[in-house]
Amino acid sequence: MRDKISDFVDGVFPRMIDNFDKLDPEKQFQYFIRILEFVIPKMREADFSVGVRDLTEDQLRTSIRLLVQDNEAKRNNGEAVEHLTTAGE
Questions:
Q1: What is the C-alpha to C-alpha distance for residues 70 and 84, in angstroms, rounded to an integer?
Q2: Torsion over CA: 7, 8, 11, 15 (sign)
Q3: Spatial distance between the Cα atoms of 66 and 45, rounded to a whole number of angstroms
Q4: How far apart are CA 49 and CA 24, in angstroms?
Q5: Given 3, 61, 71, 79, which is the most exposed site by the fewest CB atoms within 10 A?
Q6: What is the radius of gyration, based on Cα positions, of the chain?
């Protein structure tokens, strides 16, 4: 069945191109948007949230250190905070 559908599309496609060129620009755009989803998958919302309880103790400490470092860097107008980058080494 898949082969028959593919053969049909192959046979009809040249006429579709000719008919597409005859459409007014608004209809061309609508048609283009409708067939685009067959070529480019729709984006889906991804949930990358992680609960604090899901983190190991090391991951939690690293996260806190990076948040503090980022916060202090912003307060210091982006200047490096030397004592935080060397802490824990």
A1: 10
A2: negative
A3: 26
A4: 45
A5: 3
A6: 28
**Do residues 85 and 69 lie in contact, with contact meaning Cβ atoms separated by under 8 Å?**
yes
- Tens of pLDDT, residue by residue, the chain (89 residues): 889 888 888 898 899 889 989 999 999 999 888 888 888 877 776 666 777 778 888 888 888 888 888 888 888 765 554 545 555 54
**For residue 1, which amino acid is it?**
M
In whole angstroms, give the CA distance from residue 61 to residue 55: 9
Distance CA 3, CA 25 (A): 33
Residue ranges of alpha helices (H) inside the chain are: 2-22, 25-36, 57-75, 82-85
Instruction: In whole angstroms, give the CA distance from residue 8 to residue 31.
Output: 19
For residues 53-78, one letter each, b for 16 or more C-beta atoms within 10 angstroms of the residue's C-beta and e for the rest, the string is eeeeeeeeeeeeeeeebeeeeeeeee
